[in-house]
Specification:
The protein is α/β, with parallel strands linked by helices. It is built from six helices and five strands.
């Protein structure tokens, strides 16, 4: 079972994103405040859960969290500011959207920018260590997956309902055959540029 939270604060917020490595669609982030005493064997890194397990975990999170928020940052914005900055922006938007005070923030990964003078800690593989980060990863992933399934109806030839915009062989072949859509990230090949953080 994962640790409930990193700090001793009453209202620690966990945040994580989904869709960073995708070729199409938004990057999606969630922010979650769980009760300090909350425990669960089900909640862990969203990538380690099946679709059905994620659905059960999502329901459990929404029933037991103190507050949560989920936000997208579009592919166009990603192209303008790069995927790293867009991921952090999505997390900031989610934290600001919470209808609750935040004492401390724990972030999955190793890069973040200060927000509202709130103390924070970046944690590599945090979604495998702390319940609130794992909960954020599950909400971000389920929300974004549903969003990509809706976009699939508009552009079924890219099979986003299955690949969710990620660079599968099939998706790459579809791009070669049909070109890119308004939802594709034009900067997805600019890996070096996409890892520069702007302050």
């Amino acid at each position: 079972m994962l640790e409930s939270q990193y700090s001793d604060y009453d209202y620690e917020c966990g945040t994580d994103e989904a869709g960073r490595g995708s070729l199409a669609g938004p990057v999606t982030a969630a922010a979650v405040i769980l009760n300090k005493n909350f425990k669960s064997n089900l909640i862990t890194d969203s990538k380690k859960l099946s679709v059905n397990q994620r659905k059960k975990a999502k329901k459990l999170i929404l029933e037991n969290c103190i507050a949560y928020a989920i936000c997208n940052v579009s592919n166009k914005k990603i192209d303008k500011i790069n995927i790293l900055n867009a991921s952090i922006l999505a997390m900031h938007k989610s934290i600001k959207k919470l209808n609750h005070k935040v004492d401390f923030i724990v972030v999955d990964g190793n890069r973040f920018k200060p927000i509202n003078n709130i103390e924070f800690k970046t944690i590599i593989k945090g979604d495998q260590k702390y319940l609130n980060i794992a909960a954020a990863s599950i909400l971000a992933k389920t929300y974004r997956d549903n969003y990509m399934e809706k976009l699939h109806k508009e552009y079924p030839e890219y099979n986003w309902k299955n690949n969710k915009g990620y660079p599968t062989k099939e998706h790459k072949l579809s791009i070669n055959k049909y070109g890119i859509t308004k939802y594709h990230r034009k900067s997805f090949k600019l890996y070096d540029e996409q890892l520069k953080i702007n302050f």
